Every structure is written in structure tokens, then in C-alpha cells.
Amino acid sequence: MVAETKTKKPTFTFAAAACLILLLVEAVKLAAFCAAAPAVRASDAGGYWMLGDQVAQADIWMARNPVAYRTPGYPWMIGLLKVLCGRHGWFVVVALQYCAVWLTSVLTAWWTMRLTGRPWMAVLSLGICVISAARPSHASTIMTETFFTLFFTATLVSMSLLGEQISLRRSFLTGLLWGFSWLLRPVAATLAPAWFVAYWLLHPAKINSSSRERFISAFVTVGVLSVMLGPWMIRNQLLFQRPSLTVFLGRELWLTTFGPGQPTPPSLPETEASRRLQEMVLKGGGVPAWNNQWTVTNRLTEAGLSDVEADELMKSVSQEAISRNLLRTLARFIWRSIDFWRSVYSYSMAFFEGLPEFDQLADNGDLSWGNQRCQTFRDAWLKNAWEGRLLGIEMMSTLALVGLGGLWLSPRTWKLAAVLTAAILGTSFLTAVVEYPSYRYRMILEPLMIVCVVAGWDVIVEVIRRGRRSLIQEVSST
To answer: Which pLDDT tens digit goes with each residue over 213-263?
Structure first.
């Protein structure tokens, strides 16, 4: 036993040292990225920044020029940092986003080590995080992706712990992390199937014996979510007569129905709602880009509709087109479901290249910054990212999905596999239904994909070497 201890101790020490070195390398890389010039505040980034301005001016509920398609978490954070940091607020937001990328790497490595019980698997996870070039690509941009990825991953870690053992503390933590995720982006709703699997399906033997404790724990999670999300839903009820977190479905359906993709989109239906929409849009002059949901939205609001009324009209027309083209709609959904796993990274889309004029819309004297050497390093890194190549993305997606299947083979990891499968299917399905796939929508799953690649393939190798029966016997004896 003493000899065994002496042989294992250096292994852990070397692995810990390797983890610290990789974390330092990741921190230096991210610090260099942060020191480079930030992305322009264009498109969605400019909109978020202006909402943050409203919050900083004490309009906490963003009732001045209200919109119903945003959740409040990110504008609240921007507004708070603008109040606390003044003209340096822009830099502080970006710096915190790079810190969130680093923390996500730490969480990914810890999760992998906890699953495998092998410190060197954490080293491998960190190695993938370091060379995964595009993971920090949106941290220079005023967008929700970076913070959402951190909270999305943390929520899933908490749900996987619930899958192992239910407790009030874990239920509270799950509700808290999930609530933060939801306040950042409504796509956090895709974690509902994962929570259901973790909470109800993985503990069938306990339903009768401890149903009271289980329902109390479930009530804790739901209660925390209600406290965190309820005020914004009340705000939307008061302003838009919609007791929901966001009102955005119409614009999303418009994009998936009439936007880019294969097969080609249908034409606008010949219905009363469609004729009304076209008449109001054409009042703005010229022929608009009908496949751009924001062009149509802006034309409708300029014609006098509120944000919610425009969304509802777009939803009605989209649903009418869908009902008349069911086979085409199904084919487009299948194509988007495949494209979700083949979406490559684009530097120009992450940094809004070619749209500098939007930056002036949100320019309130905030201090910009930039280090030429750091910018050269960052741009060279990101513009040559392997995630920008279709073959690299397809290989990573294939390795991750096969690794997910590997997690199902071990009695030690199958519960995690159930939670991850529900989360991945929920996210990819909802994205294919209401959004045209792009890299930034799939990047929130990358920490999960890294866990699947490392931990899942570790199981596959063990099954090949020893057989699945030996894994079952090993778990049974412990």
C-alpha cells in the first residue's frame, strides 16, 4: 500500500502542475486578447450598450423606448458597471467577459476530473480549452454569449449533481444559476428537459419513499426561478400585456420561415395579415430585404406598431406560411438541425467588421483602448482559428457526439450522459426551430462537448481495453 501511495502521489503532483501551467497560459492568452482593441458596438452590441445606458440613468426597467425582445440581466450588468466605473465601464465589461472565459475553462477541467477521477484528464481538457481558438472570440464584443456560456455550464454541472443526489442546497444552487442564465438569454429554457431528467427520471426508487422531500426540493428550485424572473415578467405584463420573459417568437419564426437556408424559403402568403404587413413595411419606401427580420421589424414599428404588435403580426404571417408549406418547413428544419453542428466561426461576424457606423450610435464618451501587438496576435489567432474550417468543426462535433455515446456505456457516467443528452438535444432542437444556426449559438455547448470528448472517449478506451462488464463489476464492488 505504501508503494502504491508513492507511485500515485507524483502523478497527481505532475498533473496539478500541468493544470496550473495551462491555466497560466490561458490567462496570458486571454489578457493579450483583452488588451487588443475591442469590437465595435454594432448591431446587437450597440443595442445592448444603449439599454445599459438607460439602466445607468436610473431607468432600471428600461421603460423608456421599451422593447420586449430582451432579457434584463446583461443590460443591468452594463448599467451597474457604467455607474461604478464611469468612462472605464466598457473596458471593465470586456475584462470581466475574459475572466468568464477563464472561469469556464476551470469549470470544464474540474468537471472532467470529477467524472473520470483522473487528474490527467483535467490536463487534457485544459489543453483543448487553450488551443480551442474561437472560444474567447466573443469576449471583446458587447454580447451575452460569454457570460451565458459560463452560467449555462455551471447550471448543467449543478443539474448533474442533482442527478447523483437531490438536496435542498443543490436545488437552491440550481435555481440560482439557472435564473442567472435565463436573465441573460431566454434560450436557458432549453435546460428544462435536462432538469426534468436529473430531478425526476434518475431517482425512480425514491419517488414513493421520499416524495415529500423531493417536492420540497423541486419547489425550492421553482421558487428561486420565480423570484428572479417574476419581476421582469410583471414588467412585460404592465408594458406589453404579455406576462412572459420575452416576446420574440414572431421575429424568430420569420427568420426560420423566410430567411436563408435550404430549401429556398416560401413566398409571403396571400392572406389578410400578410397584406397588412406588406402594406405597412412598404410605407418606408423601396423594396426591403424580406428575409431580414430586423428590417421588417423596424419598418413595422416605424409605421406605428409597438414592439409586441410587430412581433405578433410577424408571427401570424409566419405561421400562415408554415401551415401552407409543411413539407418545405420540415425540410428546412432538418437542414438547420444538421447545420447546427456544421456552423463555422467567422471573425467578421464576431467583430462586426464593415459596420463601424453603428459604433457612433452608442458613443457617450466611453474610453476605448488598444495595443497594436496584442491586436495583431489576437487577430492572427482568431482569423486562423480551426473552428473557421468546416472539416475541423465536423470532426469536433463527431468526436463529441460519439463521446457522449461513450458516457452511456459506463454505470459511473450514464446519469451525466442522460443530463447532457437532454441539454444538447434541447438546445440544438430549439435553435433549429427558431433560429438560423451560426457558430455563436452552438459555442455555448463547447464546454459540454469538451467534457464529452475527454470523459466519453476515456470510457470508450476502457471498454475497448477491458470490456463493459468489467466496468460494471468495478462500480458494483465500490
So the answer is: 778 888 999 999 999 999 999 999 999 988 999 988 899 999 999 988 889
**Sequence spans of domains, the chain:** 2-241+342-387, 252-332
pLDDT in tens, 73-119: 999 999 999 999 999 999 999 999 999 999 999 999 999 999 888 89
- Residue 438 in contact with residue 349, Cβ under 8 Å? yes
| Cell (9 digits) for 343 | 456552423
C-alpha span between 118 and 462 (Å, rounded): 13
Please enumerate in sequence order all residues whose Cβ is within 8 A of that of 287, keeping only pairs 6 or more positions apart, or say none.
none
Confidence of residue 178 (pLDDT cuts 50, 70, 90): very high
